[in-house]
Amino acid sequence: MRLLKLPIVCLLFISVYAGYTQEFKVHSHNDYKQNIPFWKALGAEVQSVEVDVFYKDGKLLVAHEQNEIQENSTLARLYLNPLQEAIALGLLNNKSLQLLIDVKSNAHKTLNAIVAELKEYPAIINADNVKIVISGNRPDLKEYIDYPDFIFFDYQSLQPVNNTKVLEKIALVSLSFKTYSEWNGKGRLTSQDFISVTEAIDKAHALNKPFRFWATPDSKSAWKAFVDMGVNYINTDMPNECVTYVTSLKDRVVQNSVFSKVYYPNFKVDQAKRVPKNIILMIGDGNGLTQISSTVLANNGELSLTQLKSIGFIKTQSADDFTTDSAGAGTAIATGQKTNNRAIGTNKKGAPILNLTEILSEKGFYTGVITTDEITGATPSSFYAHRTDRGMAAEIASDLNISKLKLFISQPTKTVKHIEDAGFVMKTDISAIGASVDKKVGAWFDHSNESVTESNVQKLALATKNGISYLNKEKPFFLMVEGAKIDSYGHANDIKGVVTESISFDRAVSEAIKFADEDGNTLVVITADHETGGLTIPQGNVVRHEIEADFTTHDHTGTMVPVFAYGPMSQEFQGVYENNEIFDKLLKVLKIAVKK
Prior knowledge:
Elements: H1 8-11, E1 25-28, H2 39-44, E2 48-56, E3 59-62, H3 75-88, E4 97-103, H4 107-118, H5 122-125, E5 130-136, E6 151-155, H6 164-168, E7 170-176, H7 191-205, E8 211-214, H8 220-229, E9 233-236, H9 239-252, E10 253-255, E11 278-284, H10 289-298, E12 310-315, H11 326-335, H12 356-362, E13 366-374, H13 378-381, H14 393-398, E14 407-411, H15 416-420, E15 425-427, E16 441-444, H16 454-471, E17 477-483, H17 485-491, H18 495-519, E18 522-527, E19 531-532, E20 535-541, E21 546-551, E22 556-557, E23 561-566, E24 575-578, H19 581-590
């Protein structure tokens, strides 16, 4: 599908992204040059295989140039015998395969030899899902009908074919890409080249035949461009890599459908050199710079988060590993000490460490935790519990009995009894929490329907707004808000989920910044515990809210993650530093001294 009257910036990415329903196939070009010809292509599940053939001394020999011919490299040995075996083994059941034979020697003599040899393979020529196509040196167009029904041809022209019987013998249309562009597959096609290429594809499709370019650049950018432009056979010398890439586009290219309305701060008290009264610490679990970039670009190019001016980066390594988990990172932020992975509120030797909610409660602060995870999850529990392993869910839940928290909102957990016995008045309506006068309040998010609905995307923002209202009494407060499921979708390599959860998190950020502007004496710090998924975003389209994602792992990575701050003393959070220094910086701006 192409709309040539649209601006070129839009054209370059037009395709049927919703499920990638456009049909395309992968063609293993020069397949005989692979270390395992035919079988490697079949294993990669390509739909078309190309082999160059010379007819010499009564043999059909496979080679690109005549001086490369080897006596044992015959068409039968490298392709016809394996293809017959694949059919016999049922490896082509419910699949189609095109064997494109590029004739390098005399057209008539070579083709006659090919026909004669194929007749010795009835399983191949009678297979409904196998098509033999002759390319390279071919007889005249009008002669196509003189060859058996099992022989088809590669048409290398854009001229109309008026003879219906001849047209039926044409399997596809192939052209040299270099006739239309010198693009090397990096960056993008120029506007003029794009027009030339798409016009050629349109003319080919007017013949009602599949289309292929040869002499193409061989890269992910090129493969995606050809898919988007409607090329039916994607030409490649890297069949496995190409198939893996193009078949994954349906999962990795998403169009965002939910948005965060950007809040523009007034900056009246931002970076003011005075002690803030309240602290709101927000943690996007797994929310690295690329996750943020993806969400920015899918949200019309900006977020409330990206309006902030005080920006830094933290290094996330734990005490015992290059790559932290959420427990090690959460504990470092909450206690100011690097610790081992899996540890909750304990040091490297397993001893309990004071956390921010405990320290600040002693200084008269009301404290609370909001998370889209369970309250016993690694990040939230780092702010109230002390256990040597994050898997000790019941023990972690029991720590709420002695915690200093006034508020929690989380997903329901198996340890409900421990939590509700800790003295929290449980609310069924999160909207009612803001006006509550109870001394300790808790609530569960409704998780009966996790689909992408407005209420689900808005729930963290609603909880944040009401949590702030509840804590904002006569005393100062500390609130930790976690957007936990960015991490979950990162582990699953689900870019749609990452963007949707990041939108939800940004809506919560908006509520925190709005309050900071209204209050004038609140410091908001937004960061992540680590990055998840090794996410990159090679391509996309801001206008269409589209993102192409590429993940390198299903786990956390060791990359630095950003810190954003807003309000009095936000400038203290600029620069590059260790994750445990967030604790130190928070106490510094509050002018609270603590012995470690």
